[in-house]
Amino acid sequence: MPEPSYYLGVDIGTTSTKAVLFNKSGQIKESHTVFYPLHTPNQLTAEQDPEEIFRAVLTAVRETLRKSSISRQSLKLVSFSSAMHSLIAVDADGALLTNSITWADTRSSKHAKHIKDNLNGHEIYLRTGTPIHAMSPLSKLLWLQDEKPEICRETAKFISIKSFMFHKFFGEYVEDHSIASATGLFNLQQLDWDQGALAIAGVTSDELPRLVPTTQQFTGVAAEFATFMGIREDIPFVIGASDGVLANLGVDAIDPGVIAVTIGTSGAIRTVSPVPKTDPKERTFCYVLTENHWVIGGPVNNGGIILRWLRDEFASSEVETAKRLGIDTYDVLTKIAATVKPGADGLLFHPYLTGERAPLWDANARGSFFGLSIHHQKQHMIRSVLEGIVFNLYTVLLAVEELTGEPARIQASGGFARSELWRQLLADVFDKPVIIPESFESSCLGAVVLGMYATGEIEDFSIVSEMIGSTHTHYPEEQASDIYRELLPIYIRLSRLLTEEYESISDFQRKHMT
């Protein structure tokens, strides 16, 4: 009897790399996660060590395969998902000149504003589909040229973290269309680097990786790394796509009219279109999955990271309680939030602790509680934090709906989907049924499905509906939805009214905080 076939998805994320081994039915055989730090010496900087992340990739693959005990011959492919918007400078010998400057780094905020206001930023966005923001490599390149000219003079290539990985594996700098489409440097219609954007960034095509489709295969991985990981040197490596678009594929939100909502450290709302679409109001992105699948949506900075802040800064007693009971602190916090009725008695929270991308695209945005009164207690604040995160996602949904219409269904994934309260919150705020797939490994599963498509094992993506396993559906509760319909307009108006003050307070913070 022949041994079953297995497929490995590798997701290179902001805080960890995860490798997940699937069989052909989408069942998880084994997985392994390796964590690494995000270096934030000040409130603007967010960098990572590319070599540390590469070691994490090697280790995640090796440990997953070691624990699985499958034979080398039964592994059919390795396919990659990666976080977007990273930028790394390397010299002609491949030596690192910078760390990986991540999406969360906001040092280029003023340069993004300059592009927007003075360098035809709107036209650049319409051609590239990447909103003009400090997250994008376009803004980061302008910042580097301005602030670190000595680095730019030595740079031979500006690359992403995935491009760094593939150079280590195969000796060539390549960039898949999906990661490229999140740089602000990629022309959606031409599927090539955008010459107008390159001129603004001060780089040429020769200083960027070679562009390849998301289905591009590579074989002949360097022998030392193949040996370390426990794989064959001739196994196909599929370059894959970005984590966001693969999450859509991995939760079966690939057909037009289906919305995917993801909340992990950050969050996003995305849907798929057969053609690229950009927003005249510049609220949404448009990224490549394949030439026939374009993912439109908006990312938010402030997802689970806000809950972590709440835990670390305000919930020391709850942390101790959780330790004593041997349960997760977040379970304690959500149980406390559940004791408060929807709307938190009129307490609103804007979760812009790390600035915000969609729908504001304002790195200066700052968080706030609004509506505090003497009767509000800690449990109200916990509830309002959870609601504020979902309210913010709802405002992104409104922007997406303007481009693609009202969704037929909503598929949700990410760490938050493990929480009953969060799932119900999403249904109540969105006032629509929310479907939760059994598998939480959406980006890795999406990478594997794309890899199977690339290698000819499947003819289209329809197989994913059978691979995601059983689903759970949460329906909106009418009374809660009615309360949120009253509060949401207030929430939205406040964020707009405070735009000028966001800039004022962030200027003060940069001046006085170290």
- Proportion of residues in β-strands: 15-25%
Mean pLDDT, to the nearest integer, reads 94
Fraction of residues in helices?
40-55%
* End-to-end CA span: 65 Å
Report on this model:
The chain has 514 residues and is an alpha+beta fold. It is globular, with a radius of gyration of 22 Å. Strands 17-18-16-15-21-22-23 form a seven-stranded mixed beta sheet, sandwiched between helices. Strands 3-2-1-5-14-13 form a six-stranded mixed beta sheet, with helices on both faces. Strands 4-7 form a two-stranded antiparallel sheet. It starts with 5 loop residues before the first strand and ends with a helix.
Keywords:
23 strands; 19 helices; transferase; EC 2.7.1.12; 514 residues; six-stranded mixed β-sheet; Gluconate_kinase; ATPase_NBD; alpha+beta
Lay out the secondary structure.
Blueprint: E1 6-12, E2 16-23, E3 28-35, E4 47-48, H1 50-68, E5 75-82, E6 88-90, E7 100-101, H2 109-118, H3 121-128, H4 137-147, H5 149-154, E8 157-159, H6 161-170, E9 174-176, H7 177-180, E10 186-187, E11 192-193, H8 195-201, E12 210-212, E13 217-218, H9 223-229, E14 237-242, H10 243-250, E15 258-263, E16 267-273, E17 285-290, E18 293-300, H11 304-314, H12 316-325, H13 329-338, E19 348-350, E20 368-370, H14 378-404, E21 409-413, H15 420-430, E22 434-437, H16 442-454, H17 464-467, E23 471-474, H18 478-497, H19 499-512
Parallel strand pairs: 1-5, 5-14, 9-12, 15-21, 21-22
Antiparallel strand pairs: 1-2, 2-3, 4-7, 6-8, 10-11, 13-14, 15-16, 16-18, 17-18, 19-20, 22-23
Helix pairs in contact: 2-4, 4-8, 10-16, 11-12, 12-13, 13-14, 14-15, 15-18
